[in-house]
Design a protein that fits this description.
Layout: H1 4-22, H2 26-34, H3 44-54, H4 58-68, H5 78-93, H6 99-113, H7 118-133
Helix pairs in contact: 1-3, 1-5, 4-5, 4-7, 5-6, 5-7, 6-7
């Protein structure tokens, strides 16, 4: 069973997938997933924080995705879409999470839940957005 923040991202992916298919709001998703066996051991606060930041902000996140994607956002697989929402939210709103961690987590989720090569697509989009959202500071010297 996945634990900590990785477990939170994994469960959040499932919640966001379900939101895309059923249109559930954050409160419904929180209630449903917090009752699941998988919820024990994850970083529940992080799950709820990201859920709250993503639900209702999907359109803005889709604008960011469109800046790096090579196809219309509407053509994204729901798993890829959810993984990208999570990754871009972390890149944009959580400077405490290193870009490499965001990229690695997104790729791992896409490998586990996505179509055969979706992890390659997710990697490319998140890599590009990491550079745009978290530019390296200029080197002194």
């Amino acid at each position: 069973m996945a634990r900590g923040r990785h477990g939170a991202r994994r469960l959040l992916l499932q919640a966001l997938y379900q939101r895309q298919l059923g249109g559930h709001d954050a409160a419904e998703l929180d209630a449903q997933f917090s009752d699941s066996r998988e919820f024990r051991g994850i970083d529940a606060g992080y799950f709820r924080l990201l859920l709250g930041e993503i639900v209702g902000a999907e359109a803005g996140l889709d604008v960011l995705i469109a800046q790096a994607a090579d196809r219309p956002v509407a053509q994204l697989d729901p798993v890829e879409h959810a993984v990208l929402w999570i990754a871009l939210t972390e890149l944009r709103d959580h400077p405490d999470v290193p870009p490499r961690v965001v990229i690695d987590e997104a790729v791992e989720l896409a490998r586990e839940f996505g179509a055969q090569d979706s992890f390659r697509y997710v990697n490319a989009v998140v890599d590009l957005m990491a550079v745009r959202l978290r530019p390296s500071p200029p080197r002194e010297g």
